[in-house]
Amino acid sequence: MRDQFNLNNKVIVITGAAGLLGNEHCEAILTHNGVPVLLDINLNRLQKLKTRLDKKFSTNIQIYPLDITSETEVRRCSESIKKKFKTIDGLINNAANNPKVENPKENFSNELPNFSYKTWDKDIAVGLSGAFLCTKYFGNIISQNKKGGSIINISSDLGLIGPKQSLYSKKNFKPVSYSVVKSGIIGLTKYTATYWAEKNVRCNAICPGGIENKQPKSFLKRISREIPLARLAKKDEYHGAIVWILSDASSYLNGAVIPIDGGRTAW
Fold first, then answer.
1. Residue 107: CB atoms within 10 Å
2. Cα gap 53→23, rounded to integer Å
3. pLDDT digit of tens for each residue in the chain (267 aa)?
4. Using CA atoms, how far apart are residues 39 and 62, in angstroms rounded to an integer?
5. Neighbours of 60 (CB within 10 A)
6. Which strand ranges, in their side-by-side order, compose the sheet holding 35-40?
7. Which one of 87, 101, 105, 216 has the fewest CB atoms closer than 10 angstroms to its CB?
């Protein structure tokens, strides 16, 4: 059973790797003997993450600065990774725009009547179109493996329910684009799960709840009332799910949409 959860040098591509959750995906994979390949548009943050992880895990992690909204860049990156590693075993579509609207000191204008098309277009391009492009190119490489592989799409509890805007300040609404992206990710998951199934490429989505990350105490108090476990997640509480879905331990899991939100969507 322990061997089933071992990633055994599986090459896993992670988009948005330099973000809070992306960092944790990398650590989970390294802890279970996988080989994370880090993609992010922010080269400086990627380099800092690489330095930290190389030191902690005594390894040489590969990083690729990448704008996932550019099909040309995604195609070239996929070719470079295949040339270096010969194969790709897994993909985590993690990248998305997510403004920190829970902080009343931030200045956003996300009210639906005033929400700009430019922002909408950018959010869709990163969170949804980017996931499509990465699935198209990295997923195709995975489909060429004799044993297939695993794709994880990162949705959200807000891909299953609408945001309760009263949790935020009167000014900083959760943007409509976030809900649309995270709902769309679920549709992409189900499509991909059936498209490459005969080649044993599994595709599943997890719907994380929020992560505690220095939010104002007033916000934490309000959001806790909406969650049966009465708290946000700790940043490492998604490790187990990531490893399980990438590993052979979940070999019959395909097309699943898994809420990991402390029970918030059960109410």
1. 8
2. 9
3. 668 899 999 999 999 999 999 999 999 999 999 999 999 999 999 999 999 999 999 999 999 999 999 999 999 999 999 999 999 999 999 999 987 776 656 656 688 988 999 999 999 999 999 999 999 999 999 999 999 999 999 999 999 999 999 998 766 788 999 999 999 999 999 999 999 999 999 999 999 999 999 999 999 999 999 999 999 999 999 999 999 999 999 999 999 999 999 999 999
4. 9
5. 8
6. 62-65, 35-40, 11-14, 90-93, 149-154, 201-208, 257-260
7. 105
Q: Structure tokens of 226? A: 């909406």
Task: Characterise 121 by phi-psi region: left (phi > 0), alpha (psi -120 to 50), beta (else).
Answer: alpha
The distance of Cα 16 from the centroid of its chain, to the nearest Å, equals 7
Backbone angles phi and psi of 91, in degrees to 5: -140, 135
Compute the distance between CA of residue 64 and CA of residue 56 in angstroms, rounded to an integer. 20
Domains of the chain: 3-266 (3.40.50.720)
Rounded CA separation 63/80 (Å): 11
Residue 198 is classified by DSSP as: G
Rounded to an integer, what distance in angstroms lies between the CA atom of residue 62 and that of residue 84?
10
Q: Distance (Å, rounded) from C-alpha 261 to C-alpha 231? A: 9
Cα–chain-centroid distance for residue 93? 5
Tokens found for residue 44: 């400086």
CA 3 to chain centroid, in Å, comes to 25
Q: CA angle at residue 16 from 60 to 107, to 5 degrees? A: 135
Task: Say how far apart CA 234 and CA 211 lie, in whole Å.
Answer: 6
